[in-house]
Amino acid sequence: MPARLVRVDRGSCEAVTGDGRVRAEFGAEPAADPSAAPCSGDWAALLPGPRPTVQALLPRRTAIVRASAARDSHGQVLAANVDTIVVAVSLATWPDLGRLERLLALAWDSGATPVVALTQADRATDAAEAQEAVRPAAPGVEVLITSAHTGEGVPELAALLTGTVALIGVSGAGKSSLGNALLGAELLATGEVRAGDGKGRHTTVTRELFPLPGGGVLIDTPGLRSVGLHGTAEGVDRVFADIEELAAGCRFADCGHVAEPGCAVLAAVESGELPLRRLLSHRKLSRENEWAASRTDARLRAERAGRLREITRNQRAMYRVRGRKR
Ligand SMILES: Nc1nc2c(ncn2[C@@H]2O[C@H](COP(=O)(O)OP(=O)(O)OP(=O)(O)O)[C@@H](O)[C@H]2O)c(=O)[nH]1
Ligand SMILES: [Mg+2]
Ligand SMILES: [Zn+2]
Hints:
Layout: E1 2-8, E2 12-17, E3 20-26, E4 43-47, E5 53-57, E6 63-67, E7 75-80, E8 84-90, H1 97-110, E9 113-119, H2 127-134, E10 143-145, H3 154-160, E11 164-168, H4 175-183, E12 208-211, E13 217-220, H5 233-239, H6 241-247, H7 264-271, H8 276-325
Helix pairs in contact: 1-5, 1-8, 5-6
The structure holds guanosine-5'-triphosphate, magnesium ion (MG) and zinc ion (ZN).
């Protein structure tokens, strides 16, 4: 029975089928790769019955994957088959552009299209000024001013959303509040931020799909404490499309934009066209991705070597059996 997983708990999940919502158990033993485990937004094949079980997951069209907190090279999937990612950034304080670039790289890497929602505009000193500051950090991405409390920008945001929509951002950004505004109902729990530092209290703890009034579904996610990149260079390249464009003018095709002669990127920093902050952020995120990729490569090599050993072992055993038969 085809089904979509709307919420994943320990050992079981809530799934929506053509006949309604069911609780389904996980059939097979957990895979070695945690990113292959069922996740909100996955499409699945259920074996129906009094206790339905998840028999198989369909390949994911897109997936939001971050480096897992565990010290292995596997990524952690935050949501699967997402079409639009709303990156929520609160205007209650001045936006952290480096963090936004990181979230956008994660979003682009997923295969979905990101949108930046500047939230809590009613608390901003100058929302328009903040929007202008954010735009250069998000080339090719819509940046909207919104407020869940006044409803400002909510219809405009809703108009940009298609298919499966995921809300991501730090705790206290106002993801769930904005989610409720989009859902047109108070379905998601929201929480006060801490008085001292204005940080959220990690109110949202599950990722659950809710149908949107205009079609499609919404996945609210828990506030991200850390966003380690675990992607390809593609996401970073898109966030820094302006640097990629400038790089085409560098004298050397493999220019690292550090101290090379004829570097068009450094020239742009010199002239004030490109903020130095952005070049440094690019460098940092690229290195992180390369590191994640090299660790994944090392793991794949080890796994291949392991498989080869196993094949050799099996072959030897087979020859022994054959030898006995003769
Ligand atoms: N003034 C104002 N406050 C808002 C707005 N949106 C959210 N808040 C407040 O910000 C706090 C955090 O909002 P949440 O929606 O719970 O934030 P979240 O991003 O879901 O946080 P986590 O679930 O912890 O990740 C709450 O006290 C909200 O009332 C807004 O548009 N205006
Ligand atoms: Mg929340
Ligand atoms: Zn260069």
